[in-house]
Amino acid sequence: MATPPTGLSRSSQGESVCPRCGSTNATHMRFCNNCGYSLKDASGSPAPEASEPAPSGKGTVCWRCYGVGDPGADFCKFCGARYADAPASAPGAAPAKSSPATSRSRDEEIIRPPSELPPAAPSTSTGGSSGPSSASGSTGRGALVSILKDGTDGRRFTISDEHTDIGREEGQIVLGDDPYLSPRHARLTTRGSGAVLRDLDSVNGVYIRLREPADLASGDMILLGQQVLRFELLAEAELPLGPATQHGVMVFGTPEVQRIARLVQYTTEGVGRDVHYLYRDETVIGREQGDLVFTDDPFMSRRHAAVTIDRASRRFVLRDLGSSNGTALRFRGERQLSHGDQFRVGRHLFRYEGGDAR
């Protein structure tokens, strides 16, 4: 299931003129986007000194990315710079002449922490949108393409820097009207001809569309159509107990089955609702046919996906059955992306296109 892109929601907060070259910059810019000269903010006070303690008892201000780190830390948690390696010159001094490769806007070179991120300035090439360029003429390090509800391509975001953050309030791609996104939700880092996607401890996570069967671990979250299902292995106390007797008489009821796991329907209330125990060698999920059927879900295929069990090894495998909208699995930590991979954050579905694949 795909959803329309909501675009980039930030707006300009005014302009200032560089005292060195006369170029116009947004008021939140720390450095001139034309010559790299250090700018002062609207109050006339200079930017924080390199690797100086931050105000209000916070950690150290990084000399490279100006992120406020944790108190007592030796390295910046945002860019990895070591505080002890800070150059002798303060940011307020005019920088040396830079090469074209390093003369781009400082806002494009750094990933700002949540507490330090200013409103994004409009891009002159995209009609007021912040973040990576959405022009289709250049691939750069690759691109993220939004996928619409009808499966067609929507907006295209060209990746120009090593790191691209996606969030509701912060990052290079800001989707401000998506209530299921965390303020800074996920980060895409380009590495060679591919990219690595990381979940930034978001509430709702990042889901990767399966291209091949995937092993399931207890606690995994599965997305099929509009359904979010949590896979859970049963604890020892929940396993079948065998026939029960009362006063020497066997209890009459539905014959027991050798269940060892379950799928729990996870709702927007944040709790589980309907529970389906897995006891067959294969459990099929679909809209019309299967062992677990969701007749009211228009985004689910007739036979959508299946979970198979290897009882000897207690291995569970999830595979898509050629569904129209695919089956997605919430990943943990980092995930390597290849050209054509699709992932969902909040209500938005993206396709990754590698820079060398076109």
Describe this structure in words.
The protein has 358 residues and is mainly beta. The chain contains one helix and 24 strands. It has one helix spanning 106-109, and strands spanning 15-17, 24-26, 142-147, 153-158, 163-167, 173-174, 186-191, 194-199, 206-209, 214-215, 221-224, 227-233, 245-246, 249-250, 261-266, 272-278, 282-286, 292-293, 305-310, 315-320, 327-330, 334-337, 342-345, 348-354. The strands form five sheets. The chain has a ten-stranded antiparallel beta sheet, with no helix packed on it. Strands 6-5-7-8-22 form a five-stranded mixed beta sheet, with no helix packed on it. The longest helix is centred in the first third of the chain and has 4 residues, at 106-109. It is elongated.
Write the layout of secondary structure elements.
Layout (H helix, E strand, L loop, with lengths): L14 E3 L6 E3 L79 H4 L32 E6 L5 E6 L4 E5 L5 E2 L11 E6 L2 E6 L6 E4 L4 E2 L5 E4 L2 E7 L11 E2 L2 E2 L10 E6 L5 E7 L3 E5 L5 E2 L11 E6 L4 E6 L6 E4 L3 E4 L4 E4 L2 E7 L4
